[in-house]
Structures are given as structure tokens and as C-alpha cells.
Design a protein that fits this description.
Elements lengths: L15 E6 L5 H14 L6 E3 L7 E9 L6 H5 L3 E9 L2 E2 L8 E2 L9 H9 L3 E5 L8 E2 L2 E2 H6 L10 E14 L2 E8 L5 H11 L4 E11 L2 E2 L6 H15 L1
Parallel strand pairs: 3-12
Antiparallel strand pairs: 1-3, 2-3, 4-11, 4-12, 5-6, 7-10, 8-9, 10-11, 12-13
Helix pairs in contact: 1-6
Length: 239
């Protein structure tokens, strides 16, 4: 990770800020924390994020400030890259660790050939239905709010996504590690679930880390606290 002072945080035109989102933070949590840091230091400004990252995922979250927020729509369409872990032989309602496991079974009989072939079959264009535990709107309500009330919306509108690369990087059953590059709007949780279903044992996303958004890389990002400190230093310099 680069030193915090290598990234501009207070240019006149605004900035693109690369943040390493912590586990269990929402994307809005990060926006609110950084907006508050600017305000406390006498540098109030408009801030938005360029693509949501689930609370149970970590890694690259891109923020835009001031006039740069006008470019958010052009950045949201960039491809995304992730590293993660899928737990096979179990399912969860949310397709990740937000909800408990059920339908546990033995996945030890799966061969490496079967696992690699299953991953390869996902590459290309496909239709994907957003999960109930997602921020997609349905009749004015977020799907995850309905899911937490025990409701199921069966007619969730599917969208076309592209899987450019899906590589299995390590197999230690019942878990497998993977690297994937996808188009805008792809839910990796759904891919993990469908991957487990294809193998006949079920599966869910055990962990996920976003490592790139288009040309922007996680190794150029700051932690939330590094960014807060950089904003404070910028305010001191301006003063």
C-alpha cells in the first residue's frame, strides 16, 4: 500500500480517492467517515462512491470529491477484479457469510478437473438475477430490507453480465480460492452460489476482496485512517 501523502486529497478540481474498505463497513459508512473528516478540518465538499462494495467484502472502493463527482457515472461502468474464497458443500440464504449455513454435505469427492471445468464454464456473457440480499430497488424498497423481513421477490429482473476471467488459484476442500474479472453489475455472491449448484454440492462466498476497478489497483489505496490523516494534513497546509 502506498504512503497516504502520495494521493491528492484536496485539489481545486476534486480528487479520486482509492480506499481499502474494511470488513463489515458499508460503502456509505466509508463515504460518511471521509465526508466527516473533510468537514471537521474545514474542507467541506461533496463526496460519492464509484460502485458499491458489499459489507462482507473488503478492498478497493473508489470515492470522488467535489467536481470529480460528475465523473462517477463513467467510472461505475469499469470492469472489476476480485480475489476470494468459496466454501463448497454448504449454502446460505444471502450467498455469503451474512446468514448461517444450511444443507451441509461432503464435498471431498470433487476432483480438481471438475472444479476447474466448472469455473471455465462461467466465462462469457450470462444473465444474472440480483440476490435478495442486495441494494437493488423493488417498488421503492431495497431488496435486502425485504429479505430481512422474510419476504422473497421471485420476479427480480435479471441483467446481462460478462465474466472475462474465472480462475481457481487453490483447492483445499471444502474451500477453493479464486480470481475473477467481471463487468459492471455482476454479483460475485451469485456466481459463488451458482458455482456450488453446478458442482451439485452447494456453495457460498466465504470471503471477497476487490483488487481492481478498471486501471485502478488496490495496491495504490489507503486505509480509511490513512485517508483521514491525509485530509488533516492537507487542511494544515491550506491553513
Amino acid at each position: 500500500m502506498v504512503a497516504a501523502d502520495c494521493m491528492s486529497v484536496h485539489s481545486e478540481e476534486g480528487d479520486f480517492l482509492l480506499v481499502d474498505k474494511p470488513l463489515d463497513w458499508t460503502s456509505f459508512d466509508v463515504v460518511a467517515r471521509i465526508r466527516g473528516a473533510y468537514k471537521r478540518n474545514g474542507l467541506p465538499r461533496k463526496i460519492g462512491h464509484c460502485g458499491t462494495l458489499d459489507p462482507k467484502a473488503t478492498g478497493l472502493l473508489m470515492l470522488a470529491t467535489a467536481r470529480k463527482t460528475k465523473s462517477i457515472s463513467t467510472l461505475e461502468v469499469l470492469d472489476k477484479e476480485y480475489d476470494g474464497v468459496i466454501r463448497l458443500g454448504a449454502r446460505t440464504v444471502s450467498h455469503d457469510t451474512e446468514s448461517p449455513e444450511y444443507d451441509l454435505c461432503d464435498a471431498s469427492g470433487l476432483s480438481e478437473e471438475e472444479i476447474h471445468a466448472a469455473a471455465a464454464s462461467f466465462v462469457g456473457s450470462r444473465m444474472q438475477q440480483p440476490p435478495m440480499h442486495s441494494a437493488v430497488w423493488h417498488n421503492g424498497t431495497r431488496l435486502y430490507e425485504l429479505a430481512r423481513q422474510g419476504q422473497e421477490v421471485s420476479d427480480r429482473k435479471s441483467r446481462q453480465i460478462e465474466v472475462y476471467r474465472f480462475e481457481i488459484t487453490d483447492i483445499a476442500l471444502p474451500e477453493i480460492r479464486f480470481s475473477i474479472r467481471v463487468s459492471k453489475g455482476a454479483y460475485i455472491r451469485v456466481i459463488a452460489h451458482e458455482f456450488g449448484e453446478l458442482l451439485g454440492v452447494g456453495g457460498y462466498l466465504r470471503s471477497l476482496r476487490r483488487v481492481a476497478i478498471g486501471p485502478y489497483r488496490l495496491d495504490s489505496a489507503m486505509s480509511v485512517e490513512e485517508l483521514v490523516e491525509a485530509i488533516a494534513r492537507a487542511a494544515t497546509t491550506e491553513g
